[in-house]
Amino acid sequence: MFLVDTSALVRIQRKQVDPGWDELGDRGLLSVCEPVLAETLVIANAKDYVRVEEWIRRQYPWVAVPDNIWDMVAAVRRELAPHSAHQGVSVADLLVAATAIRLKLEVLHEDADFETIGRFVPELRQRRISVGPD
Question: Are 69 and 97 spatial neighbours (Cβ–Cβ below 8 Å)?
Answer without folding.
Answer: no
